[in-house]
Specification:
The structure holds three protein chains of three kinds.
Chain A: H1 15-18, E1 25-28, E2 33-36, H2 42-51, E3 57-65, E4 70-77, E5 86-92, E6 98-100, H3 109-120, E7 123-125, E8 178-182, E9 194-200, E10 203-210, H4 218-223, H5 244-259, H6 265-295, H7 300-320, E11 329-330, E12 333-334, H8 342-368, H9 371-377, H10 385-390, H11 396-399, H12 407-410, H13 431-457, E13 481-487, E14 492-498, E15 507-511, H14 513-519, H15 521-525, H16 530-540, H17 544-548
Parallel strand pairs in A: 2-5, 6-7
Antiparallel strand pairs in A: 1-2, 3-4, 4-5, 8-9, 9-10, 11-12, 13-14, 14-15
Chain B: E1 9-10, H1 11-19, H2 23-61, H3 77-86, H4 98-115, E2 123-124, E3 127-128, H5 137-158, H6 162-193, H7 198-205, E4 208-211, E5 216-218, H8 221-224, H9 226-239, H10 264-289, H11 300-321, H12 327-356
Parallel strand pairs in B: 1-3
Antiparallel strand pairs in B: 2-3, 4-5
Helix pairs in contact in B: 1-2, 2-10, 2-11, 4-5, 4-10, 5-6, 6-9, 6-12, 9-10, 9-12, 10-11
Chain C: H1 2-17, E1 40-42, H2 52-56, E2 62-66, E3 72-78, H3 87-91, E4 97-99, E5 114-115, H4 117-121
Antiparallel strand pairs in C: 1-4, 2-3, 3-5
The chains are: A alpha+beta, B mainly alpha, C alpha+beta.
Chain lengths: 549, 360, 153
């Protein structure tokens, strides 16, 4: 793509012109043009792009290593139009990789740059708090570097680890705050999450999430697996609470766009149906665990949510063969057709869809219409839309603050653009709004599935292609870079791939939506009580698999 | 209106008679044996309620089958659970404040059991199951029930754990906030009976309220003053720490509150103590509002137990349906909501009693 | 207050309804779908030692050792490490390895779950059952063009 013109932007706001004095080159990525700027001009360039050109969404920061340099790529988009993307490429030297930090311009860059520092060793000047995020603070070396030796043991004595209580001991001035470790062993953190909380009585003064307990080096695993077959089981394990098909679609979309693989319309319809079933299951779990957080341990709402989710899992088991780790999508389509006999499968799905309104009404009765629930969730965990956008929040967290950003709608894939459905937003900005968004999205997903079923039932028998003809080895041409995103259950799930001509990726970067959503927790919880902190954490609907990868 | 006192034998006196002792020795021995019997019955009920009934009820609310393998209807789970809990290792944190840490669970259980000593639990074959019937029985039973708060605070403070501390502080605030509405509502009932003696409450409630010819609705205070009944139920839920007011041990927020650092036998004591308090609260409600051991056909004591279980079922129902309120909202509801309503109830009762001259 | 009462009514309706959603395992086993990816079944007669399964396996679960005449010597399958993704079944040209519906298999330690060629012939979990019959009438969706009888050992 060599032209930057879009209908709603004037010529002066074209990025090449805007950054004229800073540019040291241009690149062409598969998804967006790239502008190359020097490492000391990051803040200036990003400020101009944000304010004058309207690029207000920093999706992720990818760090990678070439033979002669390090590079960080800032993937910019616009909330109003996510197809309008720009990659800001910042090369830096191999001996002393230092880049000016973008954290003052985009708050979301804070954690993404910490991760780049942690895994790749690039330092960011002017960063408010540059320390390791996924690995312990005493880790030696930077794992994603090419010269990192995996077999050398990490020998670090215990005394060198940071003692989180040490600096909070009672000082002579008599500070009245108490430091509390919430997690990693805690009934309410959704996964292994450690939150360092400073409390003033029951009020939260400071919240600092500490992640990395579930870091499984997914990016490196995918970098050593082949595109065609071996990477596909892994996306199931990022958002492992049954949004597996949505994760697989992220990878499938990226790799298919990279290798120019067409997907037949029949497979797209099945993909859409499967993905929306996955989304219902994921939202059911989110509602159920939120009910657990707010209602206490013995709440019946959790078990009803699990029951609904179980029914979806049974349908997905009939379709894909597994209940949670589906491995159903393939590059070019899906692994197998609808189960035989088709009528029975359609009947089962329709039976489930008929019960969805009743289940949703039950959730409204138990949760959203309950006055005590409203007491707990209305006006707690308030998230202003501008703050949410600045932190890169996406998904129901952002839509609960009134911003209608849904990739299925604005950057369509699958069959979403010719089906009849709505983007669900709520204006409440609080925990209650986010819960309502999820409940309503379940209804919308049911609508989409219904329409997909209608199309699948009438599909002519000789036209049912489930996979296009893809060679056994997929090795896209080297030197290409692409970033694609889909609407996962928790938000924008994006993947960046760089090829090098072989059948495994040279760089595979995963943008997990929960990573950016978790970063906004201090904004939600500071100044509120402990129960509100827990409720806010539940309403963010995190999956540590996506946060830590 | 004069209330005719009941002409039945109280349990300690009956035991003394059976053993052939009289005077002070007879009273003491009879009381001790009676106390042991009552405690055994209550602890048995707790043992059934904790491991078995709670799970069965929760399973019914959530469309599951629970505890059905060991023994008939799964009842041997009680034995299995007790053995399991007692055989666990007792882990005491290093910085725990030792005597307080150990005494806390005992205080909680003690306060519940001693509360049963003044409750009139109905008749069983001509013997009134009531260990003592002091004239200030109503005040005593509330006082005994409140001793539990000391135990909770001790447990919270002595555990040397921040979560326990939070739980202990929350429980103190909650107990103080809800004690007063409970007492004020109980006082409004005293306006009818004219006495704090609990057996007088039972006697008063046996009188007919509305005569329907075929049978008469007795003047249980639940029928006479349903508003006070509902208020008392809600305040009682807060007093015993049950949803929607179970903030002191909110497991999702402060792990287990004051119980966090307790294991093995101490945990069993806290667990039992919690259920004993539920039954004590239910006992107070039964005596004050549901006529104690009154009902057709079956002996009074059996009816008393049935009413205790009914209220226990009610607390479990609330537990599965209701969210938990935040601590500041809870204190607000207590001091601003329930207190005002209970004083309003007191005034209204005083007016009604004065105008219609119903009480003593 | 109405919302509160409605919540209470909802749970009470379930309690009085009496239906249960759970099954009493192991007396009643849950029904698994025909496509369920359970334990593997390796057929040595059909295997042509093409090593496609070993190549495609994402986490090195299958290990094949050949001698210098390229005859298959060892076929080691670590059932405890497998992620049950079914890629080996998908790429196998002769349906020599299939994932069956059996999910009831155990081992005392993780090392117990490594099976070599000889052990795979006599594993206990599918004696007496036809692992492929469960896939009817769906077999055409994944089985190749061969409609003949599948042999077992």
């Amino acid at each position: 793509m060599s032209t930057f013109e879009t209908p709603d932007r004037e010529q002066e706001a074209d990025p090449e012109t805007l950054l004229e004095d800073l540019l040291i080159g241009t690149e062409a990525h598969r998804n967006a043009p790239g502008v190359v700027i020097p490492p000391n001009a990051v803040q200036e360039a990003l400020t101009r792009l944000r304010e004058d050109a309207g690029y207000d969404h920093l999706s992720t920061v990818t760090a990678q290593e070439y033979a002669d340099r390090f590079e960080a790529i800032y993937h910019l988009r616009r909330f109003a139009d996510p197809t309008d993307e720009l990659s800001v490429v910042v090369p830096t030297s191999k001996e002393d990789p230092t880049i000016e930090s973008a954290a003052p311009v985009f708050r979301t860059a804070d954690w993404h740059e910490r991760e780049a520092y942690d895994l790749m060793g690039i330092s960011f000047e002017d960063h408010p708090d540059l320390r390791r995020i996924l690995l312990p603070e005493t880790w030696q070396g930077h794992p994603l570097r090419q010269d990192y030796d995996q077999d050398r043991p990490q020998v670090v004595p215990l005394r060198e680890h940071r003692n989180p209580i040490a600096e909070n001991q009672q000082t002579a001035e008599g500070e009245d705050t108490m430091f509390l470790n919430v997690g990693p062993h805690h009934p309410a953190t959704h996964g292994v999450l450690h939150i360092e909380t400073v409390l003033d009585g029951e009020q939260v003064v400071d919240v600092d999430p500490d992640i990395g307990y579930l870091h499984r080096c997914e990016e490196q695993i995918c970098e050593s697996s082949t595109y065609r077959h071996q990477i596909m089981p892994y996306p199931d394990r990022w958002d492992y609470v049954s949004a597996g098909l949505l994760n697989e679609w992220a990878y499938a979309r990226t790799a298919e766009d990279l290798a120019d693989i067409e997907v037949p319309a029949y497979a797209q319809t099945i993909r859409t149906m499967g993905a929306e079933l996955s989304r219902i299951a994921a939202h059911m779990l989110a509602l159920g665990t939120f009910a657990l957080d707010v209602n206490g341990d013995f709440t019946a709402a959790f078990m009803y949510a699990m029951r609904e989710r179980e029914r979806v899992e049974q349908l997905l088991e009939e379709l894909t063969g597994q209940r949670l780790m589906f491995n159903y999508f393939r590059l070019g389509g899906v692994a197998w057709d609808l189960p035989d006999p088709r009528e029975e499968f359609f009947e089962n799905v329709r039976e489930y869809l008929n019960d969805v309104p009743e289940a949703v009404q039950e959730f409204h009765d138990l949760l959203s219409n309950n006055e005590v629930f409203q007491l707990r969730t209305v006006n707690t965990g308030v998230l202003e839309p501008e703050v949410a956008k600045d932190y890169g929040c996406t998904g129901p967290v952002l839509r609960g603050s009134g911003v209608a950003y849904d990739i299925r709608d604005k950057d369509p894939y699958g069959r979403y653009d010719d089906l009849d459905w709505e983007v669900v937003t709520e204006d409440g900005k609080d925990n209650y709004a986010r819960v309502l968004v999820r409940i309503r999205e379940v209804e919308q997903s049911a609508r989409i599935i219904d329409q997909c079923l209608d199309r699948l039932e009438d599909w002519p028998e000789d036209d049912r292609e489930i996979q296009s003809n893809v060679p056994r080895t997929v090795a896209p041409d080297g030197g290409q870079e692409i970033y694609r995103a889909v609407e996962g259950a928790k938000g924008e799930l994006g993947i960046y791939i760089r090829t090098d001509g072989s059948d495994t990726p040279a760089r595979f970067k995963i943008r997990g939506p929960s990573f950016s959503n978790l970063q906004v927790l201090p904004e939600l919880a500071e100044g509120e009580y402990i129960p509100d902190l827990i409720a806010a954490l539940g309403s963010l609907d995190l999956v540590l698999g996506e946060v830590d990868r | 209106m004069n209330v005719v006192p009941l002409q039945t034998v109280r349990l300690p006196d009956w035991l003394a008679g059976v053993l052939g002792l009289d005077g002070l020795l007879g009273t003491v021995v009879g009381s001790l044996i009676g106390a042991a019997l009552v405690a055994t019955v209550m602890l048995t009920m707790t043992a059934i309620a904790g491991p078995w009934a709670k799970r069965k009820i929760t399973a019914a609310f959530t469309d599951r089958v629970a505890v059905s393998r060991i023994g008939p209807y799964g009842l041997f789970i009680i034995v299995a659970d007790s053995l399991r809990l007692i055989s666990k290792e007792l882990i005491v944190p290093e910085n725990a404040d030792r005597p307080a840490y150990d005494i806390a669970p005992i205080v909680v259980v003690f306060s519940a059991l001693i509360g049963f000593s003044v409750l009139p639990m109905g008749n069983l074959g001509g013997v009134s199951i009531q260990l003592a019937d002091p004239e200030a029985g109503l005040a005593l039973v509330f006082a005994f029930a409140s001793i539990a708060t000391i135990g909770l605070v001790m447990g919270g403070y002595a555990s040397a754990n921040k979560y326990s501390l939070l739980g202990g502080l929350r429980s103190v605030a909650q107990a103080i906030a809800y004690e007063i509405p409970l007492l004020v509502i109980a006082i409004s009932l005293v306006l009818f009976t004219g006495s704090l003696q609990l057996s007088e409450f039972i006697a008063y409630q046996q009188q007919p309220f509305i005569d329907l010819g075929v049978f008469a609705i007795p003047s249980w205070f639940a029928f006479v003053n349903p508003f006070a009944f509902l208020l008392f139920l809600v305040a009682n839920l807060a007093e015993i720490g049950r949803n929607p007011f179970d903030t002191p041990e909110a497991p999702n927020e402060i792990v287990a509150g004051y119980q966090t650092e307790y294991s093995s036998v101490y945990f069993v004591l806290f667990y039992l103590g919690e259920f004993l308090h539920i039954f004590l609260g239910a006992g107070i409600i039964t005596v004050l509002f549901l006529g104690g051991g009154a009902g057709p056909l079956l002996p009074g004591f059996v009816w008393f137990l049935i009413k205790l279980w009914a209220i226990f079922l009610f607390t479990q129902w609330m537990r599965s349906a209701m969210p938990r309120v935040r601590i500041d909202q809870l204190i607000g509801i207590g001091w601003k909501g329930l207190l005002v309503l209970s004083f309003a109830n007191l005034l209204l009762t005083a007016v009604v009693v004065g105008v219609f001259n119903v009480g003593v | 207050m109405i919302g509160v009462l409605k919540s209470m009514a909802t749970t009470m309706k379930h309690a009085l309804g009496g239906e249960t959603f759970t099954v009493r395992y192991p007396e009643e086993a849950p029904e698994v779908a025909p496509r369920f990816r359970g334990i593997h079944k390796f057929s040595q007669e059909r295997c042509i030692w093409c090593r496609q399964c070993e190549d495609v396996c994402p986490n090195d679960t299958i290990q094949i050792v050949m001698d210098d005449r390229r005859n298959g010597e060892q076929y080691n399958l670590h059932v405890g490490q497998c992620i049950y993704c079914r890629l080996c079944e998908e790429v196998c040209p002769t349906d020599a390895i299939v994932l069956t519906q059996q999910f009831e298999f155990t081992g005392d330690t993780k090392d117990d779950l490594v099976y070599n060629k000889e052990q795979l012939k006599s594993v206990p979990w599918y004696k007496g059952s036809d692992p492929l019959a469960a896939r009817e009438p769906d077999r055409d969706a994944w089985v190749g063009d061969d409609d003949g009888e599948i042999d077992y050992q």
